[in-house]
Specification:
Two copies of one chain form a homodimer. Chain A folds into three domains: 182 residues, FAD/NAD(P)-binding domain; 114 residues, FAD/NAD(P)-binding domain; 121 residues, FAD/NAD(P)-binding domain. In chain A, 26% of the residues lie in helices and 27% in strands. Chain A is built from twelve helices and 25 strands. In chain A, the strands form seven sheets. Chain A has a five-stranded parallel β-sheet. In chain A, a hairpin with a 2-residue loop joins strand 14 and strand 15. The first copy, chain A, is globular, with a radius of gyration of 23 Å. In chain A, 57% of the residues are buried. The interface between A and B is large, with 66 and 66 residues. Chains A, B: It holds the Pfam family Pyr_redox_2. Chains A, B: It comes from Cryptosporangium japonicum. Chains A, B: InterPro entries: FAD-bd_OxRdtase, FAD/NAD-bd_sf, FAD/NAD-binding_dom, FAD/NAD-linked_Rdtase_dimer_sf, Pyr_nucl-diS_OxRdtase_dimer.
């Protein structure tokens, strides 16, 4: 008789797991049932700001695979189904009030926004940007209110991307950030470069500002954001707030939750001590390869990898998820932004003593048409010179150079050894000393001092 | 009394050595004398095709530092000086007939074109493209002859770059290549993609063609290229031929020449057994980190690194050149081309048993404006799955992705481990599975088969 796999959450992680399991085991051997609260499956949440901003025309473009397409591959996806309980004893889940037996279970419940308890935060015209439905809601508000003034609260990835999207739509945009600079995943000196570019694009960046609440009009629409630095009028308010792993279901079932707040798994994405229970995506915690500590990093690329790993293992293969080094990239207006490894405050927290080096360099040969500059900052361990982290802010070709540093980090290279790396050189692509090598040289000098 | 450092050849390697030595030791401690046959110092030879093609306006833009600028930093550069002998016993060199004593010697004589003995090859209007002076000569011929038809012989880096440059100048261009496809530093299946793009740009690509000679007119100008596939009329002929280390001087002095034809050095760029004798740049051989064999790879980026290493050591510091992995990138018309590690014929020659995988993927999220495709081919060792090499041909963002593979090669990663790499993901920069990860997955599957 066929085993039954139940997947809770049918986005990147869940459906990667389902697809990989299906590739290895057919429906006579493995029945796959996936429950999804929303109406969409397998979509690119990271693409939502570009769709709202008009760079991506159609919402459908963001959907990699529809429920119907999954069904055609013998994966029974049930949208509009909310799983409310997992019973590990009986090996069943409850979805929309009905009980369903499982042999294997993949928990892929994703992340949830961390919403402050500001008065008015549930008002109309106040939007998070986590799901495709959120994107629909933003578009509806923009149209319904003929919105001209937007306030974006929070200057992280989503906040910065949404500020740009709304400027593209012709709105006046104010970005409110509690810290002294936006993009706090960068060190302050690098975040300042981002603030400068946002301001160049006429985004009104207000830093060091604490939001106190939102004032609603008689119809319940948010009209004003109240802060310790005054009030900001708004036709629409976007919450660029962080997320945390969505784990109530797992916690209630008695599954282990780690110190970072995510579900604990082993390298194969199994929940330890619970045969046949798997977890993947934004709801889990993973090993950070630089700190060697557990961490929760909500990113589509990790979710896809983890889901794939779970699915291969469920399918009878062998795969592992070996951890992360903390790589992230984004674009803010004309600026490319990237980081990997540890920023200064993270290195301190992890107990590393470190030196830093910061350089500016051309992205391509300085004499080649279209040359731009980028700034690279590197952290290296004092004494050993081990690379600990890097941040890049700059023009075209800046962001993906972080990958070189991410692979170096993965392999625990020293900045001194990195100065010898055999990176591609030709005038349309790089100066004869690639900026990464220039940064490694500066960091190597800093270590020797 | 000050020591004297003599540098033979004042381009990338030689002047990097001189500059680094000068940074660490001032003129009271170290006198530096550099001899250069030509009139230019420290220029980007790789930029010449872009200058001829008109993308780079001014020849001066290619010069990083003029002789005068070097002199201002207490480096006595003598252009128009040809060194004709090195006397290791007396520790002196002969330049323009005069003898000069040295304590330390850096040999940076570069590469020399491998010229076939075709009749007519020394005719007027027949040009190599190695030096700035060659570039001047090409421009002079184009102007003087009001050239309309160009024949480029050899479809390697220089040949392809020059074909594009001449098309940009409005010439009809025929590219003759002996092999079945251009870019033989790629495997044939990847080289075909390059041929297709060149043809799309109206370059007449003729492969499998052996040149027999050039016919000159009464004034000594080359007018026709004779081949086993017929005759090709030409107003200008460009030789995209290979180079080899220029080592007569070193060989005559009794210095060791290795199996690849380059001067032998240790990791600090010292010529072993000869105290105070250093060599760097296109004239040396280096360790290939994948084959573990000596190899000679003429590239500005290696020359700069090696010169820097020699200079730091001469200056009293410590630095090493730890070898290469065979990375090279170029652009042909709208196509980005890259390789690292071993291609199939090299892997065979080195005794590796290997599998290959080839994938096509988007450079950025498929739904993001301007998405293009790229093809990545990976070679991995049979059994162990160790990455052996990679080739990339494709649109924007294709070439520099080779750096990720170069760093993975450097660290002897397996393709299986590479599937977990934490590379940057955001829709403007990458699909959620970066093409490198897609290729690693395909290669990992191939290894397991």
């Amino acid at each position: 008789m066929a085993e039954r796999l139940i997947v809770v959450g049918a986005d990147a992680a869940g459906m990667s797991a389902a697809s990989q399991a299906r590739r290895r085991r057919d429906h006579r051997d493995l029945q796959i049932l996936a429950f999804e609260r929303g109406v969409h499956t397998s979509y690119s949440a990271c693409g939502i700001p570009y769709w709202i901003g008009g760079l991506v025309e159609d919402q459908d473009d963001l959907v990699a695979r529809t429920p119907q397409q999954h069904r055609e591959r013998d994966i029974d996806v049930r949208t509009g189904h909310t799983v409310t309980a997992i019973d590990l004893e009986r090996r069943s889940v409850t979805a929309n009030g009905e009980s369903h037996h499982f042999d294997q279970l993949v928990i892929a419940t994703g992340g949830e926004p961390v919403l402050p308890d500001w008065p008015g935060i549930n008002g109309k015209g106040v939007h998070g940007v986590q799901t495709l439905d959120d994107g629909d809601a933003v578009s509806a508000t923009l149209a319904e209110r003929d919105a001209r003034r937007a306030v974006v609260i929070g200057g992280g990835y989503i906040g910065v991307e949404m500020a740009e999207a709304l400027i593209r739509k012709g709105l006046q945009v104010t970005l409110l950030e509690r810290s002294p600079q936006p993009m706090t995943t960068l060190d302050p000196d690098m975040g300042e470069l981002v603030a400068a570019m946002l301001e160049k694009f006429d985004i009104d960046v207000r830093t060091g500002v604490t939001v106190q609440g939102l004032e609603l009009d008689d119809e319940g629409w948010a009209r004003t954001v109240r802060t310790d630095a005054g009030e900001f009028a708004a036709d629409i308010v976007v919450l660029g707030v962080g997320t945390r792993p969505r784990v109530e279901l797992a916690r209630a079932a008695g599954l282990p939750i780690g110190p970072s707040g995510g579900i604990v798994t082993d390298r194969r994405m199994r929940v330890p001590g619970h045969e046949g229970i798997w977890a993947a995506g934004d709801c889990v915690e993973v090993r950070h390869r630089v700190t060697d500590q557990p961490t929760a990093i909500p990113l589509g690329t990790h979710a896809n990898k983890q889901g794939r790993v779970a699915g291969i293992n469920i399918g009878g293969g062998y795969a592992t998820f070996p951890g992360v080094v903390g790589t992230a990239v984004t674009k803010a207006c004309d600026l490319e932004i990237a980081r990997t490894g540890l920023q200064e405050k993270e290195a301190e927290k992890a107990g590393f003593a470190y030196v830093t080096a910061k350089i500016e360099s051309h992205n391509i040969a300085g004499y080649y048409p279209g040359a731009e500059t980028m700034t690279i900052k590197i952290l290296a361990e004092k004494g050993t010179g081990r690379l600990l982290g890097a941040q890049i802010v700059g023009g075209s070709g800046a962001a993906k150079r972080i990958d070189v540093l991410a692979v170096a980090l993965w392999n625990e290279m020293t900045v001194d050894e990195m100065t010898g790396l055999d990176l591609g050189y030709a005038p349309p692509f790089s100066p004869v000393w690639d900026p990464v090598l220039v940064a490694a040289r500066a960091a190597s000098d800093a270590v020797r001092k």
